[in-house]
Amino acid sequence: MNAPRWAEEALDLVLHRVGETWGQVGDRFPLYADPADGRWTTTARGSWTGGFWAGLLWLRAARTGSDEHRARAAAVTARLAPWADADTATRGLILWYGTALATGDTEAGALRERAAEAVLGAFDPDLGLVPWGAALGGARPRARTDGVPGLVPLLASAGPGGREAAAAHLHRHLDLCLPARGGERPRPAWCRDEARGWTAEADPAPGWARGEAWLLLAVADALLLADAPYWRADRLTRAAELLLAEGEMLDGPLVPPADAAPADGPCDTSAAAITAVALLKLARVPGAPWSGASAARAEAVLRRLADAHLTRPGGSRPPGMLLDGCYDARAGTAVRHELVWGDFFLALGLTALLGRVDLSRV
């Protein structure tokens, strides 16, 4: 089967934008860019999104084969090292996606191993998970859907004990976040105290599209890893089916609203891009009932993002910006912007669609 020409063109645009971003941000990390002119808001240490900038640089290096591009990717990845010992479950987002594409890079591999051991050491058997942590602010003993993606494969890379911890971490989040019955949306955030136990937090609320996409991505990773009874593959399959149904991920809008309420709020292309990658992973699960539908839907989502939300040459904005990402709808922060993780998952999804990356390893 010939690779779709539109996907080649879209990937070239996104990776060209990576080069423009490199020149703009210097030794800082891009977070979100203004839709009017493409100027990035940056962070010094990368926050929870730094791994996606490193991942984009590795995708570009693989595409170009340039030694200079590999060196730049390696340099940014090395700057993620302080996060290995940070008290945050988002180490999965930072250190899995920041290193998983660094094929053949010894230092990136060593950083991933160090991070995996550190996260395994942070696993709390009483809570049954790696706590959300205090490094990014807020109470430490929390559970959030964005504390699961990346952490499942990162933990699983830490040997047999890591694989069991990865399964336990995910299933505790499924225990908390998935609704008890159909017709309800997952609750993405929980906090625990000694008096009340686990209680749901008001923000983010059910209907947060990116939170549902994060959870589906983690379930897809687990299904591809499930080689022992503790993974509970039957339950993972039911969880995937529930998320696909309640989040309308196979038959709803190709680009979902950032939040289910209000109905007239902004959409979120980053949620769509994450979902597309999760669907491509689900399509690889042997014997899954959704394989054909999920592969077709993933391609349709990526095509919509490329056709309707990706800037082109000749306009007033830099080409290759994935617009209409929503950082935080409730706070009104960057609600129609280019988001670095949206760019990353679009690039990863397009690369996978073109057959150039093994999604069971990323």
A few lines on this structure:
The protein has twelve helices and six strands. It is mostly helical and 362 residues long.
Residue runs with pLDDT of under 50 for 5 or more positions: none
Question: What does the average pLDDT come to?
Answer: 96
Cα distance, first to last residue? 23 Å
- Strand tally is 6
Order of secondary-structure elements = HEEHHHHEHHEEHHHHEH
Instruction: Please state roughly what percent of the residues sit in beta strands, choosing from under 5%, 5-15%, 15-25%, 25-35%, 35-45% or over 45%.
Output: 5-15%
- Major beta sheet summary: 3 strands, antiparallel
The helix content is: 40-55%
What strand order characterises the main sheet? 2-1-6
> In DSSP terms, counting alpha (H) and pi (I) runs of 4 or more, how many helices?
12
* Gross geometry: globular
Structural class by sheet pairing and helices: mainly alpha
Radius of gyration, taken over Cα atoms and rounded to an integer in Å: 19 Å
Features of this protein?
362 residues; mainly alpha; 3-stranded antiparallel sheet; 12 helices; 6% strand
Description:
The chain has twelve helices and six strands. It is mainly alpha-helical and 362 residues long. It has a three-stranded antiparallel beta sheet with strand order 2-1-6. β4 and β5 form a beta hairpin. The longest helix has 21 residues, at 5-25. The model has no long low-confidence stretch (mean pLDDT 96).
What layout of secondary structure does this protein have?
Elements: H1 5-25, E1 29-33, E2 40-43, H2 50-64, H3 67-78, H4 91-96, H5 106-122, E3 142-144, H6 151-156, H7 159-177, E4 189-193, E5 197-200, H8 209-225, H9 233-246, H10 269-282, H11 291-308, E6 338-339, H12 340-353
Antiparallel strand pairs: 1-2, 1-6, 3-4, 4-5
Helix pairs in contact: 1-12, 2-3, 2-12, 7-8, 8-9, 8-10, 10-11, 10-12, 11-12
